[in-house]
């Protein structure tokens, strides 16, 4: 195992975060704060409790997920897209590194970054809402699994994209709508049929539900199902990446 | 001679269907400077990219220091440093950071003293904290070389190292290449500047349209193909080459006003002396004479034309 290589890539990617601190950390925190002010405090004060949880507290796990998903994807996709775009990827390809080490470096950094961000948002939320975390270990577990899974997904997008537009289209056109419709701001039990059943095809429902369970012990779907689905997405992304490196898809001619 | 890179029956067909390399066999000797010479689009970069692991071969095998580049890619790639043709660097990184990154990527423990030595040798030490985008093109090229040397490779590929490079850097680069060779590093450079190959290389390979058409010691190549010509301007034009002269190596030019004598540049010049004395016995007066020597350039142009 070429640990120096993993570390080199990881450090390189993290250095990019600190260089672009405003963009990578400050702006997601700011936009989440705005959600809290609008939905949590202003509108939330006029809303009743959902599943015994105040509305302001109820939306916290969903908001964290929203940032976690989009940041994981955009960090990881940009991290691998840019060397491809600028040509510096030649060095990684010519180095004695295995696909696993490349992915560990890039995805590890992207996931660390978005987890850090998720925790930062939680800390920010504390200023506005008093919330408790019933199952802290599970909370961290879901946070980490989701960050890794969607960083892997972002890595795949970064490999697939051959221009900047494609890089942004999936997070913007797919992930954001799925998150909004995935129960970030409401419990899916509040939806009438058939929407309630249709919603179950939205993968983000399971992530948010599981994450919210870790906070308040209440969930839209059973925690075991949420956990199983998260692992399933992880496996799906790992398979995609395995295929990319086996075929050299869009990285080697 | 121990071979450090061994390419066997290598074919490359790109996805577009373009056949960039055809049945390439090539052995690079340990410790030599090998120049791969060929016009644009000949397949030089493709060949190097395959050896370095950037492009997949279609058919064939490549070994670096005895290790197969696919099955034993870790060991093979660890030996190799590459300075690619295109200038591509991380604009926002500092010189020091990017060189340290390269070393780590190749699995080597940090060694600031060694990196300092590399940067000093390339006159980059003063710029070590500068962001790469602040550097001039020539300096960026030096950074790429420093990156390639950061992990102490035994084999160094330089893909068109001096294309669009100023005189000073070119001189520094040649100097550096010689020093590396002294230390036992094998160097493979591609170029379409003949003078570069002529000046630097121990051996020369010529590639054209994806095929290696010749590999030869530079001196042997010059010997074998290096012909000299003596142009004699005559007082009175000749109708034909007079009998009694060695007709095989003579030709008439400019309507018989010049007599052209071709000879091997490594012959003792008996031929020229004989010719001159024969001409004077036959009463043919020579007004003027000059000789020309074929350079690698001529050889190269001839070779590429033939194929
Ligand atoms: N990725 C690619 N897809 C298709 N054709 C390519 C690709 N890369 C290079 N070629 C073609 O292969 C030929 C050899 O290119 P290259 O190896 O770069 O030549 P050289 O380095 O000798 O100038 C060229 O005709 C080039 O257009
Ligand atoms: Mg080239």
UniProtKB/TrEMBL annotation, chain A:
Regarding protein family, the annotation reads:
Belongs to the ABC-2 integral membrane protein family.
According to UniProt, the name of this protein is Transport permease protein
**Organism encoding this protein:** Pontibacterium sinense
User: Keywords of this protein's UniProt record, alphabetized?
Assistant: Cell membrane, Membrane, Transmembrane, Transmembrane helix, Transport
GO function terms (MF aspect): ABC-type transporter activity
> Which PROSITE patterns does the entry link to?
ABC_TM2
Top-level taxon of origin: Bacteria
Per UniProt, subcellular location reads as: Cell inner membrane; Membrane
Q: Tell me if ATP-binding is a UniProt keyword of this record.
A: no
Automatic annotation (TrEMBL), chain B:
List the signal peptide residues: none
The record's section on PROSITE patterns has: ABC_TRANSPORTER_1, ABC_TRANSPORTER_2
GO MF entry, a single one: ATP binding
Q: Which UniProt keywords apply?
A: ATP-binding, Nucleotide-binding, Transport
ABC transporter domain residues are 5-234
Q: Please give the name of this protein.
A: ABC transporter ATP-binding protein
Superkingdom, according to UniProt?
A: Bacteria
* Native organism taxonomy: Bacteria, Pseudomonadati, Pseudomonadota, Gammaproteobacteria, Oceanospirillales
InterPro entries this protein is in?
Answer: AAA+_ATPase, ABC_transporter-like_ATP-bd, ABC_transporter-like_CS, ABC_transporter_ATP-binding, P-loop_NTPase
């Amino acid at each position: 195992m070429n640990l120096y290589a993993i570390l080199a890539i990881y450090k390189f990617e993290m250095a990019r975060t600190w260089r672009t601190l405003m963009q990578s950390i400050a702006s997601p925190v700011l936009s989440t704060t705005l959600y809290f002010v609008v939905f949590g405090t202003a509108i939330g004060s006029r809303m009743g409790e959902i599943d015994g949880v105040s509305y302001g507290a109820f939306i916290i796990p969903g908001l964290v997920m929203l940032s976690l998903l989009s940041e994981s994807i955009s960090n990881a996709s940009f991290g691998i897209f840019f060397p491809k775009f600028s040509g510096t990827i030649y060095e990684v390809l010519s180095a004695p590194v295995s696909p696993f080490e490349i992915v560990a470096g890039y995805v590890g950094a992207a996931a660390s970054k978005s987890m850090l961000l998720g925790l930062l948002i939680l800390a920010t939320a504390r200023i506005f809402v008093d919330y408790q975390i019933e199952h802290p270990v599970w909370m961290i577990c879901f946070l980490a699994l989701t960050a890794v899974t969607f960083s892997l997904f972002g890595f795949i997008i970064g490999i697939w994209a051959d221009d900047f537009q494609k890089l942004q289209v999936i997070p913007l056109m797919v992930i954001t709508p799925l998150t909004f419709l995935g129960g970030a701001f409401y419990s899916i039990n509040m939806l009438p049929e058939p929407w309630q059943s249709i919603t179950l095809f939205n993968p983000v429902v399971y992530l948010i539900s599981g994450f919210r369970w870790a906070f308040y012990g209440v969930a839209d779907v059973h925690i075991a199902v949420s956990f199983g689905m998260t692992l399933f997405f992880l496996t799906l992304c790992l398979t995609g990446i395995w295929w990319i490196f086996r075929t050299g898809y869009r990285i080697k001619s | 001679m121990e071979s450090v890179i061994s390419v066997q029956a290598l074919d490359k067909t790109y996805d577009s269907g373009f056949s960039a390399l055809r049945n390439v066999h090539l052995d690079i000797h340990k410790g030599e400077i090998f120049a791969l010479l060929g016009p644009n689009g000949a397949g030089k970069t493709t060949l190097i990219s395959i050896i370095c692991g950037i492009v997949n071969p279609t058919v064939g095998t490549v070994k670096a220091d005895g290790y197969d580049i696919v099955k034993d890619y870790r060991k093979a790639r660890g030996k190799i440093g590459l300075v690619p043709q295109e200038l591509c660097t991380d604009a926002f990184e500092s010189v020091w950071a990017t060189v340290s990154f390269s070393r780590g990527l190749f699995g080597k423990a940090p060694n600031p003293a060694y990196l300092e030595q590399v940067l000093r040798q390339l006159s980059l030490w003063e710029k070590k904290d500068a962001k790469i985008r602040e550097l001039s093109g020539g300096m960026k090229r030096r950074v790429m070389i420093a990156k390639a040397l950061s992990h102490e490779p035994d084999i160094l590929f330089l893909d068109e190292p001096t294309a669009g490079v100023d005189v000073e850097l070119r001189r520094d680069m040649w100097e550096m290449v010689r020093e590396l060779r002294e230390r036992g590093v094998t160097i493979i450079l591609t170029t379409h500047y003949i003078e570069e190959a002529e000046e630097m290389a121990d051996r020369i390979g010529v590639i054209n349209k994806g095929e290696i058409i010749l590999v030869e010691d530079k001196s042997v190549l010059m010997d074998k193909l290096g012909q000299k010509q003596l142009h004699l301007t005559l007082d009175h034009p000749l109708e034909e080459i007079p009998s009694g002269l060695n007709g095989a190596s003579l030709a008439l030019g400019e309507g018989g006003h010049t007599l052209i004598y071709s000879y091997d540049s490594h012959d003792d010049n008996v031929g020229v002396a004989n010719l001159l004395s024969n001409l004077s016995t036959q009463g043919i007066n020579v007004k003027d004479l000059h000789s020309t020597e074929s350079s690698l350039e001529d050889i190269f142009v001839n070779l590429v034309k033939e194929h």
